[in-house]
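S.,

Sequence below, as promised.
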Amino acid sequence: MDDEKLKLENLLDLATALNQQNNFQEILRLVTQQASDLLNADVTLIMMLNPRTEQTVKTVFKGGDGGEDPRFKTVYHQICGWLMKFREPLLSGEIKADDRLKGVDWGDLPI
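The prediction came back faster than expected:
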């Protein structure tokens, strides 16, 4: 119960911080950081897509150095493709073993 209460308090803190922000970059940074903390993620990213072209407009990374590793870009391109195709959220504790991405050859990618 304490863990759930802490998560709710963190969400409330985030809502308060976002309410006081008018800087778009800072809003993205706060949301990404909070999502990473709440999900205990190594890397969290928020992608903004142009709905007409399905091209990435902006990507914000938080956590670890994975966002700078060129091999990681392959991972997020695979995940982006899945997200655009199915238009569903994707939360996975073990992406390589996730049945939704079973056709992807992850090779030696750092995930």
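Helices lie at 2-19, 24-39, 70-86.

Coffee later?
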